[in-house]
Every structure is written in structure tokens, then in C-alpha cells.
Amino acid sequence: MKRILSLLVCLLLFGSYAVFGQDMQIKGTVTISEDGSTLPGVYVKIKGTNSGTATDADGMYQLGAPSNATLVFSSIGYAEQEIVIGGQSVINVVMLADVTQMDEVVVTALGISREKKALSYAVQDVSGDDFSKIKDKNVINSLSGRVAGVNITNSSGAVGSSTRIVLRGVSSITGSNEPLIVVDGIPIDNTNYGTATNTGGFDLPSGIADINPDNIENISVLKGPNAAALYGLRAANGVLVITTKTGKIGQKSVIKLNSSTTFERPLVLPDFQNSYGQGPNKNYFEYGNGTTGDGGVDESWGPPLDQGLEFVQWNSYTVGGAPLPWVSKPDNIKDFYETGVTTDNSLSFEGGSQTITYRLAVGMMKQKGIVPNTDFSKYNVSGNSTIAITEKLKAGFNVSYNKSLSGNLPYGGYDAQNPVQGMIWSGRNIDFAALKDYKNLPLAPAGTPIEGTPINWNTQFQNNVYWSLDNNLNKLDKDNILGSIFLSYEITPDLSITGKTSVDKWSSVINEQKAVGAIEDLNGFYRETDRSFMEMNSDILISYKKQLNDDFGIELNAGGSSMSRKYSRIQGTAPQLELPGVYNLSNVKSGVSTILTNRLEESKINSILGFGRVSFKDAIFLDFSGRNDWASVLPLKDNSFFYPAVSLSAVITDFVEVDPGTLTFLKVRGGWSKVGSIGALEPYSLEQTFSFRETPWGSVLLPFNPDELNNPNLISETKTGYELGLEARFINNRISFDFTYFNEKNEDLIVPVEVSAASGYITALDNVGEMSNKGFEIQLNTVPLKTANFTMDLNFNFSKVKNIVESLGGLETLILGGQWNVNLEARVDQPYGVLFGPAYQRDDEGNIIHEAGVPLIATDYKILGNIQPDWRGGVSLGMHYKGISFGSLIDAKMGGEVYSMTTTWGRYSGVLEETLEGRETGITGVGVMNIGTSENPEYVPNDVVVPGKLYNQTAFDNAVAEGSVFDASYVKLRQVTLSYDLPSSLLSKTFIQGVTLSLVGRNLAILYKKVPHIDPETGFSSANGEQGIEFGQIPSTRSLGFNINLTF
Amino acid sequence: MNMKKIKLIISVLLGLFIISSCDDGFEDVNQNPNDALTVPSGLLTADIVRNAMNNSYSTFVGGDMGSCWAQHWAKVNYEDEERYKVRPSVIEDLVWKSYYEDVIADARTMQLIAIEEENDNTEGIALVLQAYGYSFLTDLFGSIPFSEAINPSILSPAYDVQETVYNGVLRMLDKADSLFTVGDGTINSSADLIYAGDAAKWQKFANSLKFRCLMRISGKVNVASQLQDIASNRDIFGSADDEAKLIYLGADPNANPIYESVDYGNRLEYKVNSRMVDMMADLGDPRLPVYARKNSDDEYRGKPSGINEVPNNDYNYDNVSAIGVKYLEPTLPGYFISYSELMFLMAEAVQKGYITGTASEYYNKGIAASFEFNGVSDGFAAYIANPTVALKAGDEGLKQIAEQNWLGLFCQGIEAWTETRRTGFPVLTPAIDDVLGGNLPARYTFPVIEQSVNATNYAAAVSSLNGPDLLTTKVWWMPQ
């Protein structure tokens, strides 16, 4: 770090030289005509150049410009003004509301900025300001609830947990459904390389989480294929175009420090019962050695607690083996979790001269998880600059180095290493805190599975959880460099050419170690996985732009692009260790072999593209584009695909005379496009090959015929769609409304079709899938109150997508994932993500049929639910009074189901509150029983009373899933910030230019949910097949803290 | 800069781009550097053999739905399967998919490559392994895909009834026998985990397996002449040296699955069954101390099958005998077919008059082989002198043969259970808390996935059974 800092100092010194060389300095204040209040964010540009600055929070600006130049002042909703400098050093400007003008700019495909007015498709952007005060560990999480049609799912509250983002609906059956992410023109690898599944493993954040949120100026969400069409084969899932902060031409150099500290606690914990302790029956408990005896039973069907009973328990050794009081520990789980602490500090230095802009930044984020001994850190160093070499020749670069580190990432899923598993299969009398000092506890008794490791309340299925978290580690060390250079030349004022090359290069080392005595790897385990990745993109673009006459303007662009990607993975595993505590691949147990595997992947896409626009009276815009891609992963004979798009928009209010105080602006738009995707197709999926088992038989190689049938006739996946939109603003822009309807069809989806294994294959790759997404998105932004000192913004967004799997090429269903007996499936005629599993047997009236007092389980599987929500929405409220700002965000996902195995096993094991029912009296299951014959059933209400344990272990078991499928709706208070800008009068005598202090909170509350015990926003990872199913979720966290923003 | 220069720059840049674009070199880019396009046939042997044994010896399969159902084993916890509540995922993944995809399909691939290589011996091995796989599956399910199976152009193959499958299996074994007789082609001895390249032993395996297959269907079809042909004219196992088994290695993951699960994986709920312990105690069987360990009361005590709500005071981890140490060794062999089983089958064939010979001779050889394996040969003479052991005539003798075969098949879960289904001996009482209405399981249910990926053929297959797709529906060769 020391070296990085000294490097930064050098760079800072170098940068400050660049500030000099201005002709003269001009400053002033911009106010508005209505009430004389100052206007921040006014863009001040030197006419005829791209140089300029913007007014600060107090409406003040300062920039250098030639004394004979003209300044152009512009701001949304105000008339543009041009003022000749004429040697004045102070220019104060009063802006007049201009209700007809809207030159708000958004970033579109290929990073091209466009006037929002001229857009003919749906693009929505989020400013970096919206999340700079409260930075989520992954910037993608900050989009939750802000953008209509964006679906964000954060997997869990574990450090390093992944986040799934889907724009509109899912487009691919088994391929990635997450958008292409482009940072400053660099497409980044956003693959999730974690091992998390429903059966264990650790989650990892995907590539985008490497980026320091503080560096982000803007995220532009290209939701549909029209907006994303220029990305051709990579556009099917939409695109997030992220622009990072840069210095501005003529901007005085400033240093900004953004520092925040937040504290995390679990947001939701299961509701446990506290009346009965460990054991198989309620009469008696005796620990035994924790394997034999009742201590070996990891369930809570034991004797009643807090009744003055005493039994021999795991810690009876402290009293010479005597019985100890049998008492409840209601907070044992809550107290297990520590308070997480996240500190996030970013320092940046930015500015610009007439010819150079620059920005340098460092960031450091350190996170301590709520699960003991888990952590995650990120370090970012970045810089960018643009240089006007001559009037016509511009060059620039952008580079960032991002490091992610973790000393331990927790396990999730059904695995003894997931600490939450040991809370569900548990005794409610267990004092976890007493296990914490494991170094001073005796060892587990000889002959028990965990012999040799510290004692635990159960020695058969679980290790001492604190010992496990300290000794079974999953470490990450990832380095990522993103860099790009560009050169652009203005051949004539109408014609320019730009070339760019960018690189996303990362490498990571993951170490997984399990100590000798770890319950699922008793002889220990060590694995190292080294990955490296590099993607290089080179683009060239020639642009021609001409206003032909008063009415018609034309823009034409042509270019090409070349992408090449290489990935390699080398993995070594010592499946058992000879010497405990030595984590080295050579330290492998005698008789066992180290396993070495590697994989190389290489792919290329070459493209040519063209796009253009014809405008009429600057009010009607016709956009068109075409891109042809050649992809190496497709068969040579069929590897070329053309993707066209066309769209049209018309600003009605430019043609029709209306009162701008009522209807300020009205635009209609529509478009059609076709884009593609490689989908699930990995390199080398065409020819059938033989693979090798990772572990040989001693020294005998084990080649085998893989279970997937490859297909030499595959083609790319295609998405065609149209969208229609309407944009309206009312009452001088106080209300703005944006509506988009879309209808998209995904065809030729590449599916590893599950086939009858009797064919010799488990799956066969084919272009068989068809899926449609229809829906609409509404964005409603209002300013209900606005006075000189007070502004209130209230914004809403809403989206509804109807996704239907139209065809699976003759198949009825495709299994995407699942856990235990529940499948997550794509089923024809259903939305993607059907929960399919065993249900209760029911009579014709739908009553559950009981036999001997317990529910009967149907022999065939049924549709139990679907994970797709009915709609999503968000509401944000902002209030600004002088220097005080309040912001809040509510995020809702309504409809859809989740299968919670926490309920299944928590009921089976008797730890959950609802298992108290009938402990003493027995349970009479609600439903019917058959008093007739099986041929001629006669159903009467069930009146057989069975013990609560028997009932719960039959009605909630891996053999039946129906009882644990719940409505996954939620409404969350996603974010609240309260911030205060110190008045500039206080700071005028200091070197500090601005101070903002904020109190911040994220994920503060779940205002509404129906699923018990867990946060309905859940997933084992961001993968398609790990959604909508849950077990042993590491609780999501509520985060509270403060933020300081300093500008020097 | 004049327009000419500009045009030149643009055309050069575009030209360069267009030349380098399209798909030059893409074929090389998409050449798989990780895997092999083809392999010599013999190299495939090891993985096929390993998968066949790993899955049938898995405690989820051969344990929960084999040894427990044969009532060799009983569990003192997690007794669902012992009560005939099966896990569909086990049937689907560990039996159906792994046998078709990892055993039969790879053996078929091996056969096709061997034919190209004109390697008769390896082709023969590939046929024996396919025959073994199909017989294993049809014994468990009844109807299974056979004539349309393992064909990349038929992804939803039709099922064949068990009789058709067995006829096909017998043809495969005949063909293998004739290929071995020609005896051309080298066998990859290191990949041949069973016989290390000894074609003569493979031929014995083929014929011994055929004998077993014929006996399996002997209740339905008159197979006497074919049995006699094998006994008289073909090479079969002459001793335990010839038997078909995979000797496991000393450590995970290439150790015997019983060791992997019970010992290495600490599934200590697997115990011995009182049906077996009581019978052995009655017979004074010296194998009992090898099969079982003493409980905490220093006794051999089994547990009856399928009690709900264990562990309890009557049956728990302490007071029920654990499986004997020998059977938890990592190197315990996995059997395709043992010499002692062949001897018992031949004894039965003589007893039933299918073949000529002396039943007691085969019967005693079977017992002797089992005793030798268990290291109790010293007790052999006394044991067979026991009047309840010494072979009797007629039906009583058939019961003795079946029961001795059953005893000899300890820890060969599927085969032990299958033989009880065929012979009806030893007479087994259904699990105490069974979920089949007082019936014993007669087959596995078809894998659930077939209902979706092969629905039409699945429906036809169900109608070809003797009843619905339930555990209680008897397969064709079973006495109805």
C-alpha cells in the first residue's frame, strides 16, 4: 500500500501542472429566475469546444477560458444561454425556465451520448450520486428498486455473496441471463466462479463487484434488444453501460475523500422454539459421547426446557459428568452472529486544463462478515485521462487495478460447513457461545467421527462451529486490470474516426482448506484453483454527421470490432492430508493421489457494424443499425449472423401547439430489432470427445464418454422484439412519465436437453428452446413540492413481465436445478422457473388425504409454484431543505414462490416455533382419511391424533415439498440516507471546499413478506439453477452507518 | 489533409479490418485442447468396471435398497428406505443414469471402437460388460430400453419387456464367448481392473454370467439345455481365482463404497439384521463374527427391519451389532459374480434337474469358497456336518441352497435381494413399519425423470409390467 500511495503522490504532483496554462479564470453564480435560488449542475461550456464545467451545490462555477470565448450555460428545463466573456472575470447568470427544451443526455450503446429527447428506445440511467453515500459491496445491488424492469437478487448476507441481475425477463434457458456489462467501453467478464450450489460451496461476487462504486459516474441500463442491438451477439440480455468519473475540461483540480463505515446485523432469523431441547424423545436425554446416545441426535424433540430438569449434556465434563440444568437459550443463534463492519474509503484527484482531463483514484473497502471469521476486502487504483494532442486529434486512456481478497468465505447450502445447517439440525438448549473458546475445550471423545477436534454438542454430524470457521477456510485472492486506450481524429468537422483497444485481464487464486477432523473430510483437504482470464476488444468506428438543411440531419457510422478471449484454469487437490495443518498439494495422504486438472478455453468474435440516424426538424428520429458477427464457438459452416434494428421516435409537442404548463413534452417511439446470444454454448461444444476422470484409478487413466451429446449443427440463439414507448412530461416537467411496452421472442435457444439416459447420454445440445417475454415498464418521476429552499422528489417505477417457455423442442420440461426432491424447471407453457416436486395426496375436493394420521405423499410430482414474480416496483422519496437531504428507497417484488428447505428440515428436526403445536397433545392433521377401500374411497375428516414429531417428520421431509413452498413476495425498505452539506460560509476560511455528512442505512426492514424464517430474496448463487430454492440461508444483513464526503 | 489522403486512410483501415475479420483461423480456435477425440478401446475398461461396482455397492443402492431389503443389514437411524420409502433421486442418478450412461453406453462405445480395431477380445469384454449392465437393470426395473437403447439418434428409446432384454443379454454373452474363443486382439492389461488382460478368464466370466442369467429366467423359460451346454461344454469359473470382481484400492475415492460411506463417511447407523444374525446363530455359522461385531453388551445382536422412530432404547447405535470389520475394509472386492454364487446356482440346477451332476458337491464348494473368503475354513468340515446344513433332497434342499447362497452374498446387496425375490428363500417378513401394506418390495420404481423426458415410452413400459409402476409389482421372472 505504501508504494501505491507514493505513486499516487507523484501522479498528483504531475497532474497539478496540467491545470496551468489557461488564458484566464472566470467564475460566477448561476441562479434561477423564479425565486433567485442558486442552481447546481448547470453545464458551463466554452462554445465550439468540448471543454466545460458544471456549477457546484451552491450554483457556483469556475473555469479557465480564452478571454474572447463564448460560454454556453445549459441545464435541464432551462433555456440555454450564451454569454461572450469579453474579458469579464465574474459572470453571473440567471437561467430562465424553458419548458420546451430537454437536452438531457444519456449514454447509449458503444458509450455514445445521446440527447434523451432523440432516443427511440428505452434506456434508463442511474447516477453515481445515488449510491456514492451508501455503497453496497456490489454496485449492482444499488440498482435494486431504482430502474423499472431490472431484477436484482442478492444471494445472501455472506461476505462475497453474488448478485443476479436480469433485465426484463430471462432470455436463455440455460445460458447466462445476466446483461453484458461494459465499463468505459470495456466489456467485462461477469461470470460467477464461486462453487456455491444447493449442496454447499462458497459464493463469489462476479466481475462487476471488483469496480469501486465511488468511481462510477453513471450506469445506463440498455434494457431491451433495440437499445442493445449494437452489441449483436452479446446483446440478448441487455447491456449495462457504466461510465466512470473523469476530470472535466477546465475543471479546477479537486481532491475528494469519500469515507463510510457501516455496521451489519442479520435482517431475518428463523423463529425458533425455546421449549424443548435436543434429543429424540421428550422423556430423557443423555449425551453419551455425542455420537452414540442422545447427543448424536441433531434434533430438538427432546425433554421440555426450563422445567427444572437436569440431564447429562455435552458440557457435563465441567462438573465431573453430572447432570446440568436443562434450560433454553433463546438468543443462541442471534448471539452467534457478530456485528459486521464495513469501512470504505475512496480518495480521488481530478481536474482538467483546456487540453487535458485527468482523474486518479484509490479505494479501499474492508468488510468483516456477520459470520465469525469471514471477511472480504477490495483495493482499487485507477486513473484516466484524455488529451487533445491537436485540435483534431484526441487520445486517452483509462486503467484500473482492482484487487479482491478474502481470508475466508462462508459455505452455504446443504453442507456441514454451512454454519446455519448446524442451527437447523440442532438442539434448542445449545449454548453456542460456550463452544467459542474451543482452544480451551477438551477434544471430542475417542471413537466419535470428529475425534481429535474440539468437543461439540454433537460429535457425529457436526464440528464445533467456531473451530470449523477458523480451520476450514476458503480464501480468495483476485487481481483484475481493466484498461483501454483510444485515439480519435476529426478528419473534417463532419467526419471523424475513432480506434480503441481494451483489455479485461484477471487472475485469481482460490485456496480451500479443510482441517483433519472436518466432518465431511475427516482426513483433511486442500485445493488450490488458479484461474486467468483475458479478453481483448479492438474497435474502429468512422462517424459522419451532417445537418443537410433546416429540416433534415443525418448521422452515419461504420466500424468493426474484434474480440478474443482466453481462459485457463489449473486446479490441484489433495483429497486427504498426511500431516494435519500443512496445506500443500504435496502433503497428500499415503495411498491417495493428488488430483490435477486443467482447462483452456479460447474464443473469438469478429464483427462489422453500421448504424445511423435521420432526423427531421430535430423532432422525428429514425435510427437504424446492423451488425454482423462471426463467432468461433459456432460451426464454421454457420458462424455468421446478422443483427438488424430499426426504431422511430417523434416528439409530438414539437408539432402540436399545447400549453407547456400542462403538457410540457410528449414523445412516442417504437422499434424492432433482432439480436443474438451464444447462450449456454461453451467453446468446444460441437464435437464429441472423451474426457478424463479427475482422479485416476491408482495410476490407471480413466477416460470416459461424457454425458452430454454435442452437436455440430448448432446455431446462435436469437432474440427478436419490438417495443413501443411513450414519454410525457407535465406541468413544466414537474411530472414525467415514461411507459414502455415490449414483446420479445427468444428462439433457437441452445439447450442441453435432458434425454432418457437409456440413450447413452444424459443431455443433448440442441437449438430447441423458445421463450417469450411480454411486459411493460413505467417510470413516474414527480416533484410534488418545490420552493426556494425545499424540494421533494417522489419517483415510482413499476414493471411487469410475462415470461413463457413456449417450446423445448418436443420436451415437456428441462431441469435447471433444484434441491433434494424439488426440481427447478423450465416447463413448456409456464414461466421459466417452475418448482416441481412431490405434493400431498388430495381428494377431489382438494383435502389432504391422511393415513394413520399422517399425510399421504402423491407418487408423481406436481407443479408447486413458480419463481417468477408478478411484478416489481420501487418508490424513492427525496427531500432537500437547504443543505439537508433525505432519501429513501422502497423496493417491492410481488408474487412468485420460493421453496424453503429451512422450513422442511427445521420442522423435521423440531427446532422451529411451529413444531410446538401438538408436542403434548398430538396433532390431528387437517384433511381427510379414507374409510372406504382403495378402489372405492370414502373420505371423512381425519380424526387420528399422531405425535407431533411423527406428523412433522412425515408432512415435512425430503419426500414431500409442498408444505415448504411459500409466496416469495416482499417489500423492503432498501435504503435511507440523511445528509447534511456544511454551508460554504463555514468553510470559506479553510482549504476545504465542501463537506457532506450522512447517516445511511441499507436493507433496513422487510416491510412485507409471507415466507417464514428467511429473507425471500435468496439464491444459492447467481446461477440460473440456484434461484427460488433455499436452505440454511446465511441471513441478509441490515446495514447502518455514516458517510463523510470531503472536497478539497 | 486532402480528401484523397482521407479516403486512403479510411479504405486501408476498413480493408485491414475486413481482411482480418470474418472467421480466419476460427477452426483452430475451436479445437478442443482439453479432451481426446478418440481413445483406444481397451482404455475405456477401467471406468466402466469402476462405475458398475461403485453404483451397485453404493450404500444408497446396494445398502439401503439391497442389503437392507435382503435383511442382511438394518439401520438404527434414517430407516426410510428400510421401510421401503425410497429416494427417487437415488434410483434416478445412481442406478438408472449411471448404469446406462457410465456403464452400458461406454461399454457400447468400447465395443464399436474395438470392432474398428478388429480387437475380438476387447469387443468380447465390452459385450460382457453391457450384458452385465442390462441384466442388472432389468432385474431391478423389469421392462427397460434395450433394442433402441444407446443410440445417439434415438433420444427417447422405447422399453422392451424383460424377456426380450434377457434374450438380448444371452445373445451378447454367446457372442462374447465366441469372440474369446477366436481370441484375437490384445487387452489393455492395466485398464482391465478385473483380470489384468487374461482373455481366458473373461470367457469364464461370460459363461458364468450366462449361467446366472439363465437361472434367473428359469422359472419362466425352459433353459435346461442351455444350462447343460454351459456346464458341459463351456469354460466357467473353476475356483475363486476366476471369479469376476473388482478389488478396490486402499483409499478414497477408489475404495469400496461401503467403506467410503460407513467408515470413512461415518454412517454408523448401518448395522446387521436380526434375520441374518439369528439364522447364523442357529446354524452355529462361524462367519457370524466376521459379518458382525459384538454390541456394547458383548453380544451379537441384530435389529429387525424397518422400525420407525429409531434410535430408541431397544435399537440404537450401541446395542445393535455393527457390520464386521472385514466388510468395512477399503479393499473389499466388488463382485460382478462370485465363484461361490455360481456353485450354489449349479447346485440348484442339479437339484431341479436342469443339469447333471451332484448337487451337494456344488453346494459344498459354494460354502467352502465363502468360508475361505471369510477366513473361517477351519470350521468348514464341522459346519457341513451339521445336519441342518448338510444338503437335503428336494425342496428342502432348494431352500438350503438358496439360504446358503444368501449367506454367501453378504454385502452384495442387490444380488442378495434379487435372489430372495427369485427363490423366495430365506422367507423374509416385511419391515415392521413398512409402507407397502405388508408387502416386500419386488422391484424399483422407474426413475421419475422418464415421466418427463420419455413420457410415451414410459407409459407403454408401465403397461407392460404386471401392475402399476410400484415397488410391489413383480418383475417377469419372479414367481407371481
Structure description:
The complex is a heterodimer of chains A (1048) and B (480). With 1048 residues, chain A is mainly beta. Chain A folds into 3 domains: 2-98, Sandwich (Immunoglobulin-like); 123-266 and 340-414 and 465-695 and 703-833 and 868-901 and 970-1009 and 1012-1047, Beta Barrel (Maltoporin, Chain A), CATH 2.40.170; 841-864 and 913-965, no CATH class. Helix content of chain A is 5%, strand content 48%. Chain A has 8 helices and 56 strands. Chain A has a 22-stranded antiparallel beta barrel. Chain A is globular. The model of chain A is unreliable at 1-22 (pLDDT under 50). Chain B has a domain at 87-235 and 442-473: Alpha Horseshoe (Serine Threonine Protein Phosphatase 5, Tetratricopeptide repeat). In chain B, the strands form 2 sheets. Chain B has a two-stranded antiparallel sheet. Chain B has a two-stranded antiparallel sheet with strand order 2-4. The model of chain B has no long low-confidence stretch (mean pLDDT 94). The interface between A and B is large, with 88 and 87 residues.
